[in-house]
Specification:
By secondary structure, the chain is of the alpha+beta class. It has 3 helices and 3 strands. The protein has a 3-stranded mixed β-sheet with strand order 1-2-3, covered by helices on one side. The longest helix is centred in the C-terminal third of the chain and has 26 residues, at about 60-85. The chain starts with a strand and ends with a helix. The relative contact order is 0.08. This is Prevent-host-death protein. Belongs to the phD/YefM antitoxin family. InterPro entries: phD-YefM_TA_antitoxins (IPR051416), YefM-like_sf (IPR036165).
Length: about 110
C-alpha cells in the first residue's frame, strides 16, 4: 500500500485533521514543491514512552546553567513568598521564639 501524499501547505492548514489520520494508522508522505521530503506515521508503542535524557555534552557548562536556573527559580519563589506574606524578619523571629518556648515547656 502506497502512502498518501500531503503538502506542507496542507499541514499548515489542516494539522489537527492530519494528526487524527496518523493516529488512526495512516502513513503520509509530505511533499514540498512536488518532491517527497518526509514521512509521517503513527508511533510504535515503545516510541511513545518517555525517553531518557542523554548526558550533557559539556558537563561544566550544564552545571553552570543548572545552577543559574536553580538560582532563578529560588529568586522567583522568594519574590512570590515576599509578595504573599509581608511578615518581617523580626515578626518571624518573635513567632519562632514563642514556638521554641512552648516546645521546651512540654
Amino acid at each position: 500500500m502506497k502512502p498518501n501524499s500531503i503538502t506542507v501547505r496542507d499541514i499548515r492548514i489542516n494539522l489537527d485533521e492530519i494528526l487524527s489520520r496518523i493516529a488512526a494508522g495512516e502513513h503520509l508522505v509530505i511533499t514540498q514543491h512536488g518532491k517527497p521530503v518526509a514521512e509521517l506515521h503513527p508511533l510504535r508503542p515503545e516510541e511513545g514512552r518517555k525517553r531518557e535524557v542523554p548526558p550533557p555534552r559539556h558537563p561544566k557548562r550544564a552545571a553552570i546553567m543548572g545552577e543559574y536556573d536553580r538560582q532563578q527559580r529560588l529568586q522567583a519563589m522568594a519574590s512570590a513568598m515576599n509578595a504573599a506574606d509581608a511578615t518581617t524578619m523580626d515578626e518571624y523571629r518573635a513567632e519562632t521564639a514563642e514556638w521554641e518556648e512552648l516546645a521546651s515547656r512540654q
